[in-house]
Amino acid sequence: MSEEELFEAFPPSVAEALKAGREPPAEPHEEVSIFFSDIVGYTNHCSRLATHEVMDMLNRLYRCVRFDALIKELDLFKVDVIGDAYLAVGNIRRKHTDHARRLLQFAFRAIEVGGGFGPVCVTRPELGTISIRVGLHVGPVMACVVGTMNRRYSLFGNTVNVASRMESTGEPNKVQCTTAYKQLV
User: Fold this and answer.
1) What is the mean pLDDT of residues 6-22?
2) CA distance 126 to 163
3) What is the pTM of this model?
4) Is 47 exposed, middle or buried (0-12, 13-18, 19+ CB in 10 A)?
């Protein structure tokens, strides 16, 4: 991994520790805003698409439609993509007093570009268009790099679980957030 990739994949303090050959310590974060999204009907889509068609759908949404570019533009942090789930946070890479507003702006723009970006499969328009669901929550997390292979920066705590539940119980092409999130914004 190049130095540029290291600093893109991890917050600065973690990247510096890894670059120096040290094990980065777990870090508590008192207040982060968390974004979860998924593609509505993803499992069903996967059962009807070839693997390369699924990968094309995900790449069009996350790479071509600019989720990753929006993260950079708003100075947020992309934690991971697991299947169709996209996990991003505010107030980890850099501290911002308006982190919840930034992540909310990201959520609305993600729905705007995601919801209108095109068909599930470009060669099979009868499968419909992509819809995403978004959940937001704010609170404390513990963050750390787990293991020694395929290193990822992971977040732990109930705040992560609540954000995930906001997404999974949300409606297509809408943002669902907790009362705590609304109060912070």
Assistant:
1) 90
2) 32
3) 0.89
4) exposed
